[in-house]
Amino acid sequence: MDNSTDGSEKKKVVAVVGGGLVGALNACFFAKRGFDVHVFETREDIRQAKTVKGRSINLALSHRGRQSLKHVGMEEKIVSQGIAMDARMIHSLNGVQSPIPYGKKGQFILSVDRANLNKELLTEAEKYANTKLNFEHKLQDWSAKTGLMTFTKPDGSKEQIEADLIVGCDGAFSAVRKQFLRQSRFNYSQTYIPHGYMELTMPPVNGEFAMKANYLHIWPRNTFMMIALPNLDKTFTCTLFMPFEEFEKITTGNEVIEFFQEYFPDAIPLIGVDSLKRDYFRLPAQAMVSIKCSPYHIGDKCVLMGDAAHAVVPFYGQGMNAGFEDCIVFDEVMEQFNEDFGAVLPEYTRVRVPDDHAIADLAMYNYVEMRAHVNSKWFLFRKRVDNLLHFLMPNKIIPLYTMVTFTRTRYHEAVARWHWQEKVINRGLLFGGTGAILGGSYLLIKYPPDINQLCITIEKVWNQITPS
């Protein structure tokens, strides 16, 4: 749908604040609809930057993100630049590796490079004649009544623009959202988890990956963990997640090696002793914040998307996917209400808030699963039960991870369905176990075994399993 079809009608101006992943993708969505799009980014153009500042945690692209990229014709290009990960690869303390598939055969998530993806999306946005990218523009103020925005440039000069719609995609510490905090009945919460993260690099060995490439490698150690994702240059980006107090206990290179020898011994030769000693102290551990707010809009003038609306911790691999899905959900609501911002913005808030809050909570839950539950035999047994039931009844029982990662089932509906399934399956296992015990007891009573024979058999088994 193109707003520019009527030459006498002036195109509406959409100002996207933030040229990161969600901002750049949003620019493509709005430009495709024919709006006059202006993107404002505080940093320099990362395509020209010598070093890219900011987070570099690898991203896991899954179905929601891919569908959003597909809508603007970018899916195939980005997928071709990613590495498929079919399963988690669990590294136990003794070095044994055990895969846990993510879903059915053919279902995988993609390891993609954040900076490269951002560059590709900015280049795509720039292809639209009705899009203008403005770098090194810092938002100073904006008006919820008029849509007037004031930006400061590096030389100290100011630039103003009046927009019909302001789209805040400027991250967890959003300058756009500050104005929301002045409004009454705006709910906002932020939670820093007690864990930080640190990134290390595992280089190639003889020009090839040091470990199996098509896996998300996890070293779960109950209170903390390390993960590794593959990169196109045959390196792995390793991320150590751990309570800040544990990071602070390690103060020397030798202590780093002692720590890795105790918890991640198989990783030491792959990362390298010298690299570990050096890189551990290159940057301090970084914090992780979870942010929830509501509503996502003010009147018909401004809306928040991506981390500005819902920063989530990275443990479900859905931060970027949820942000990209914001773009396609907003576009679907625009289609539904014929681009009437007065109707679109409140509907977008109504539809999207419960889903983003649900994925924020799930991301918190999944950290416990990744660092602790995967060590549990019960967890692995339940995974097999869930997968078997999904195979037998694909439309009735769907694992939570499958709903979140391989479908566009609304996040809050996926959580509600998961709780229902857990209740049903656990009840079935309880009844099945109880039935087996009762049935076995009945058979023992009806056909009692010869006690003497039973004693001889038990004695034989005992002698076999105990050393002489």
List key phrases describing it.
468 residues; alpha/beta; six-stranded mixed beta sheet; 19 strands; globular; disordered N terminus
Word description of this protein:
The protein is α/β, with parallel strands linked by helices and 468 residues long. Helix content is 43%, strand content 22%. It has 16 helices and 19 strands. A seven-stranded mixed β-sheet has the order 6-5-14-15-16-13-17. A six-stranded mixed β-sheet has the order 8-2-1-12-19-18. The chain has a three-stranded antiparallel β-sheet with strand order 3-7-4. A hairpin with a 4-residue loop joins strand 14 and strand 15. The protein is globular. The N terminus is likely disordered.
Briefly, what is this?
This protein is α/β, with parallel strands linked by helices and 468 residues long. It has helices at 21-32, 63-71, 75-80, 114-126, 175-180, 244-249, 253-263, 268-271, 273-279, 307-310, 319-336, 341-371, 377-392, 400-406, 411-446, 451-465, and strands spanning 13-17, 36-41, 59-61, 83-85, 87-91, 97-101, 109-112, 131-135, 138-142, 148-152, 158-162, 165-168, 187-202, 215-220, 225-230, 236-243, 286-294, 297-298, 302-304.
